[in-house]
Specification:
By secondary structure, this protein is an all-alpha fold. Helices cover about 50% and strands about 0% of the residues. The protein has 5 helices and 2 strands. Helix 2 runs antiparallel to helix 3 and helix 3 packs across helix 4. The chain is elongated and about 75 Å long. About 25% of the residues have low confidence.
Length: about 180
């Protein structure tokens, strides 16, 4: 899975938004750190999303929550539980009436406010949906889809015609004799 970079072997570094607080122990961290590849990254450019908003990966919790480890873990547990409830409701809506996939992605968006893995999944999903939309707008693909739809409709009409010719309009089950 590509993590938001078009360069091979390059990964997005999860850093807080230039606030200098490390999520793990509440200590100060440096904005420019050397990565494993030996290149320098800065908090303003590393982990920015495709929209260019400058918002990196990581927690979106308010600063006073991130500054206290216990409060931050409690916050993350709460976000996880709420996101899990929304995703579960979406899964239930898949076979039942309701916007199942929309609700599932809503739950993923809730998770993405706190968890990097959910942010990466949503980023990948957005990219794939955009690619699929671009492919669907391709004139050759549209002609192929229209052709396949017409062929399917012709086959359905021919089968319905054969059924009516062979059996008439009477349905094959007997409801009048009961």
């Amino acid at each position: 899975m590509n993590t938001g970079s078009d360069e091979p072997g390059e990964a997005v570094v999860a850093e807080n938004q230039a606030d200098g607080v490390d999520d793990t122990d509440g200590t100060e961290s440096t904005a420019g750190t050397e990565s494993a590849a030996g290149t320098e990254s800065t908090a303003g450019t590393a982990g920015t999303d495709e929209s260019g908003s400058g918002r990196g990966l990581g927690s979106r919790a308010p600063q006073f929550i991130r500054a206290r480890r216990t409060l931050h873990v409690s916050w993350q547990v709460g976000v996880f539980v709420v996101g899990l409830a929304v995703v579960a409701a979406g899964v239930v809506m898949l076979p039942l009436p309701g916007p199942g996939w929309v609700v599932i992605f809503g739950g993923m968006a809730i998770w993405a406010t706190e968890f990097v893995w959910a942010q990466l999944v949503l980023r990948w999903t957005k990219r794939k949906v955009t690619e699929a939309a671009q492919r669907a707008l391709d004139p050759r693909v549209r002609r192929r889809n229209i052709t396949l739809t017409v062929i399917g409709l012709v086959i359905a009409v021919v089968l319905a015609g054969i059924y009516v010719w062979k059996f008439g309009v009477v349905m094959p089950w007997k409801i009048h004799g009961q």
